[in-house]
Automatic annotation (TrEMBL):
The keyword Nucleus does not apply. This is Aminotransferase DegT. It comes from the Bacteria. Keywords: Pyridoxal phosphate. GO terms for molecular function: pyridoxal phosphate binding; transaminase activity. The active site is at K193 (proton acceptor). It comes from Candidatus Woesebacteria bacterium RIFCSPHIGHO2_01_FULL_38_9. Belongs to the DegT/DnrJ/EryC1 family. GO terms for biological process: polysaccharide biosynthetic process. Transmembrane segments: none annotated. The keyword Transport does not apply.
Amino acid sequence: MTKVKKDYELSNDLIRTWSTFVPKQAATEVGKTLRSKWINTGKKEKEFKEKARKKWGFPYCVAVNNGTAALRASLAVLGVGYGDEVISTPFTFIATNTVILEQGAKPVFADIRYDDLNVDPKSIEEKITKKTKAIIVVHYGGNPVDLDEIRSIGRSYKIPVIEDAAHALGSKYKGKYIGETGKLVCFSLQVVKIINSGDGGMISTSSKIYYQKIKEIIWYGIDREAKKTNLLDPFPDNYRGDTLGFKYNMNDITATLASVGIEHYDEAAAVRRKIGERYRKALSNLRKVKLLSYFPDREPNYQIFPIHVKNRIKFANYMRDYKIMVNINNRRNDIYPIFGGERTDLIETARCDKDVVLLPMHADLTNKQVSLIIDVVQKY
Ligand SMILES: Cc1ncc(COP(=O)(O)O)c(C=O)c1O
């Protein structure tokens, strides 16, 4: 059996599914931070949060060390714990669901929709029980879910909605950025994301109460920004010691990278948009390939470009013959023993688990490479 190479071992002439976008300015700015004598959470982290708030209209913003931490902190703020159920999607990177287990709760999987790979609101509603403590939705691939419909379900049953927006920085729903509205919206700044800080994350919230709680829970239950008047007490005046927290804060090295990323977001997003629009135009009427549905009231950021394809293993091998790499982003999560094993009622999830692959999508792709990809897919 041939061993599949790690991404970093692949030859440079291969067109990769993903890549890392690091603006030139990043090295200079990180150099300045490293020499500043303060690399822990500080000025740079504050600057990053302010920039993010202004750029995407977040009412309140908390920076964390990764997207998984953002999700777990959100569940913790809602008090999700042992005996609780959290309704989630099985079609996502496992982090969306491992955090539920970390909190001691049980993921209950709703089915997804074949057309856009997002969770099906009707299936969410069917899975609600007395034990349901929260709903997590993923804006899959940066293509937003129908927030109005899902929030309305949440309101009717008084169940809070967490948005896993790891893919959706800069995407829009009904004219507003993801994170501009919403009580707990979690982003990831991991290496292949549209902007990245090596690893990093943030939570946007419209609730001042949640904002205060999140600030505390991500650093041992302590609000680092709170007033301190006692010269010798290590903790701020309002520290009560009654909340168990995590160590999820973002340091200033990470924040510097994230901050430079924001300054170059438009550039990176424009490249993705152009590629996404080209793919959609050129690949929309093929027999063996089906594109996802994109809706007129939403703007995707094309974080990834999933397609449905007939016989995906054959397709992957065929693409590899042209030195084009295609990937499966994730398998349905329920099949893994940690999540309890394969569910039999996830009909659309089962279909997608057999035929979804990602076409290359990143800021390093040239026009010529995109033309080649289009040409090769058309010929399949
Ligand atoms: C949908 C989804 N949720 C959560 C995460 C976790 O983010 P992070 O890697 O920043 O912890 C990822 C990571 O890629 C993801 O794709």
